[in-house]
Amino acid sequence: MYQVVRKLFFTDCQCAEDASKTYEELFAKLDTNKDGKVDVSELKAGLAAMGIQTGKGAAQKIVSSGDKDKDDGLDFSEFSKYLKEHEKKLRLTFKSLDKNNDGRIDFTEIKQSLADIGLDISKEEAEKILQSIDVDGTMTVDWNEWREHFLFNPATNLQEIIRYWKHSTVLDIGDSLAIPDEFTEEEKTTGLWWKQLSAGAMAGAVSRTGTAPLDRMKVFMQVHASKSNKISLVSGFKQMLKEGGLTSLWRGNGINVLKIAPETAIKFMAYEQYKKLLSSEPGKVKTHERFMAGSLAGATAQTSIYPMEVMKTRLTLRKTGQYSGMFDCAKKILKKEGVRAFYKGYIPNILGIIPYAGIDLAVYESLKNVWLARYAKDTANPGILVLLGCGTISSTCGQLASYPLALIRTRMQAQASVEGSEQLPMNLMVKKILEKEGFFGLYRGILPNFMKVIPAVSISYVVYEYMRSGLGIQK
Length: 475
Hints:
67% of the residues lie in helices and 1% in strands. The protein has a two-stranded antiparallel ribbon. It has helices at residues 2-9, 16-30, 40-49, 58-66, 76-97, 107-116, 123-133, 143-150, 157-164, 185-190, 192-210, 212-224, 233-244, 253-258, 260-278, 287-317, 326-337, 346-375, 384-414, 426-437, 446-451, 453-471; strands at 104-105, 141-142. The chain is mainly alpha-helical. Helix 11 (192-210) runs antiparallel to helix 22 (453-471) and helix 18 packs antiparallel against helix 19. The radius of gyration is 27 Å and the shape is elongated. Mean pLDDT is 79; it is low at 1-15.
């Protein structure tokens, strides 16, 4: 049966009339109960009977995306329209992979295409991908083999890899130093990118609000804790509650949430521009170019919103009655310390971007490549636990590397507001901490910082998923 369908369906040249006739014959075979529509169970059973391999959940996705009248099935016009539109997309993907335009894809072209989206694989791994599509054993894939393999799978492997392995918009652990997400050309032209950024921003806002007490404790310990003034989690929270009540645990959260939107927008726009400037070939971005573009975009965004970072630290550490709000805080800093005060701690903050973004990217790419090499058999979708695990591990490693610089930045931002503290530059502050408290003095507040990682990741993921469905972003 499958060979018959293959001869009918996967021929090199079909006029519109022949294609329509082929669709009719295929539809008749799939519509087993002859009710004029094909539902999920019929599609799944029919394709399996013909020997056509489909990915997990493919039948459901085909019916959902083609079912315009929402009657849980595809009538003939919906069925043929879906196949025609999907075939167009497959043709575009095939052409983008066929680098030398010879009508065939070989393993070097697959390897190059994956490298273009930041995924470096070995020759053996590229050949393994090719073999899964290659029907005639030539170790190349022509258009018929490509169409045959993917026509009843809603996405191509490359699109799945790009879509599934995004992590920075989903996870918000309070630091905004990660390299921005890659968006496909389709996402940019359809406007899907701003929906994803909006969903990520909302997830970040809710996540930061949920973990604000732990964030305030981290800042409190970074600035006030020392060998002579030991502050534990319990004693720290007691001090805060005694001084300002329960609501004082959320001090500084308002501006922390407020800065998400401008920072995300500036970083995304800057990243797109830096990629164009730094890429050696138009439209292709290598991993090291992506790292450089991401780091520069992060530095640009941080420079633009840095006064808000200083105000966040001051508002987080404020005592009851010290400031009436954000504008009062800005006015008092300006009047008392001048414009330069809004850029205190700027140098350690910018220096912290490189170890954070570099290690976060390197660890995430390594974990991604390990998973794809060992476990990606039927699909490139790793599942939510693997994704969240990889994202959490890479972000935590990045934080661990850049934490001493984050501590120095926070202390410099807070200097003028802490009674009796010296106004020290970065190098003297590092020297003083190492002399008085040793190396681990640079890691004060790391415990509440790590404690907020898992709840922050969990909250941001749940909110992100709700936002995705609310904004109509397909999974």
